[in-house]
Amino acid sequence: MPGSDLEERVRAAMFAHLGGLAAGHPDGLHSVDINRFEVDGMPVRLVVQPGIRKPRFLDAALTIRTTYTQPGQLPPYEDALGRDGFIRYKYRGLDPLHPDNRALRQAMQRELPLAYFVGIAPGIYHPQFPVFIIGEDRASHEFVVAMDETQRLIGVEPAGTSTDARRGYVERLTRQRLHQPVFRARVLRAYRTQCSMCQLRHADLLDAAHILPDGHPRGLPVVPNGLAMCKIHHAAYDRNILGVRPDLRVEVRADILREIDGPMLRHGLQEMNGRTLTIPSARSSRPDPASLDERYELFRLAG
Prior knowledge:
Number of strands: 13
Radius of gyration: 22 Å
Strand content: 15-25%
Number of domains: 2
Helix content: 25-40%
């Protein structure tokens, strides 16, 4: 019979499995590798159709999934950020008593952690774990998801009672725990895990740089608003030490070009002047020209 010991043991083993995989794959995990998971010698698939996974030998859901949607296409389920800053995960269908929905409700009631797989590309996922189901809205056919233990402890307040400060704090946590790593994984995969400026390929030294920053009306965490950059070029871009023209040519600020310093300044920054960025072959992943133009004007004004 399923029991709490088995539920907890399977989840601990799953998190160890995913942690080992994620350490070596910052640009996302392939579903084939995710599904190479066993418990007591028995294979347990973690990513399956549809999005909610409950193995037969468990009482509660083990994983949830948001599929990858090609740019310009509508997702099958509109998982989104709620007004309180928490992620909302849609029911399977509309029936609250559907077995998958009951399995998620069981995880909520027993406060059991799950893994959440967010699509990065076809068959590729960013794993977020542990996450918790902390609430349910039957009228909207959705569950409330906490991205980590901190959000779980904060909890959901009754509608209309959440303060702006509390909501802002929860939303910042959601962006840190989910949106930023998903954005980074999608950008690195689109740019083949290399700096668009210097072609450095060490994933640990690469970032996803926003073209238009967080807080800008169009500063969304989407690939066309991102550039894969090594950490030094990301920092230089954010601080307007260098800029990127709409034609993808790099400009280094005039005062930086006149400086005399060591090899890092010369090779790492000054020699980038006039280079053309290496961008994805897929048009849907290329930098948005209007965003580049707006960001370049900020660079020019800063100079």
